[in-house]
Amino acid sequence: MTFPFRATLMALVTASPAAAADLADRYTEMGTMTVTLDGAEMALVIPYDTEDDSGYAEQKMLMGSFLTMNIVGQTVGEDGEPGRPLVQVTLQEQMGKMGLISAEMFDEQGFDSPLAMDSDGGEGRLTEYSFENGRLEGTVEGTFLRLADYMSEPKLAEGATPQPVTIRFEVDLPPLDD
Question: What is the reported pTM?
Answer without folding.
Answer: 0.85
